[in-house]
Amino acid sequence: NAGVMQNPRHLVRRRGQEARLRCSPMKGHSHVYWYRQLPEEGLKFMVYLQKENIIDESGMPKERFSAEFPKEGPSILRIQQVVRGDSAAYFCASSPSFSNYGYTFGSGTRLTVV
Amino acid sequence: GENVEQHPSTLSVQEGDSAVIKCTYSDSASNYFPWYKQELGKGPQLIIDIRSNVGEKKDQRIAVTLNKTAKHFSLHITETQPEDSAVYFCAASGNNDMRFGAGTRLTVKP
Fold first, then answer.
1. A102–B43 C-beta distance less than 8 A
2. Which of A35, A41, A99 sits opposite B93 (nearest CB)?
3. Angle, CA of A100, A103 and A109, to the nearest 5°
């Protein structure tokens, strides 16, 4: 069981480009959560998805950010027209059911916007 | 929604001493309280959790206590070792909603 797989581990984008972050949940987990972490700060909730459904996107900026978890394939967090303030570590977590189980986190994608 | 506060933000102890990290939560519907440890450059790892039907849980040198009435819970690490140095996050979860504290950077000095 490979755990939660995130790729890429590091991503560098120029301002205005698009960033695509991928997350494959643990086998048997159908719930995916994305969090953003700025240096020396905590984990800020962004979005909670189940297969083909967005359950809660209250933490995600309304513009430029989108997330999906298709029937087949990984969950994708997409950031369009990146700005320097988007530089952060983005963590994905998965669980077998809704949030009353411990999440398993991936190793994160560190996005740097130059 | 849920709001979780965590104290202290930094904690430095001597090897062998105990460390205590405290969290409070706002939503009385929250019923699951996990603790995560994050080492530099890695994702958070679940180290212990407690549900609202128990008041205390222990796993070797780590224990967690929960006071539902006061809406606070604490992590206790005894006989600390240098490898315990990391950032620790508490979290509270209820209905489709898990929120994290801001984290505590624990440093254990040899």
1. no
2. A99
3. 145
- The pLDDT of residue B29 is 87
Helix (H, G, I), strand (E, B) or coil at A85: helix
- The CA distance from A83 to A98, in Å, is 32
Partners of residue B75 on adjacent β-strands: B21, B64
Contact assessment for residue A23 and residue A68, using Cβ atoms and an 8 Å cutoff: no
What is the reported pLDDT for A9?
Answer: 96
In which residue ranges of chain B is pLDDT below 70?
95-96
Peptide bond into B110 cis (omega under 30): no
pLDDT tens for A10-68 read 999 999 999 999 999 999 888 999 999 988 788 999 999 998 899 999 999 999 999 99
User: Would you state the structure tokens that stand for residue A20, as one six-digit string?
Assistant: 């695509």
Question: Which of A33, A42, A98 is closest, CB to CB, to B103?
Answer: A42
Distance CA A24, CA A74 (A): 5
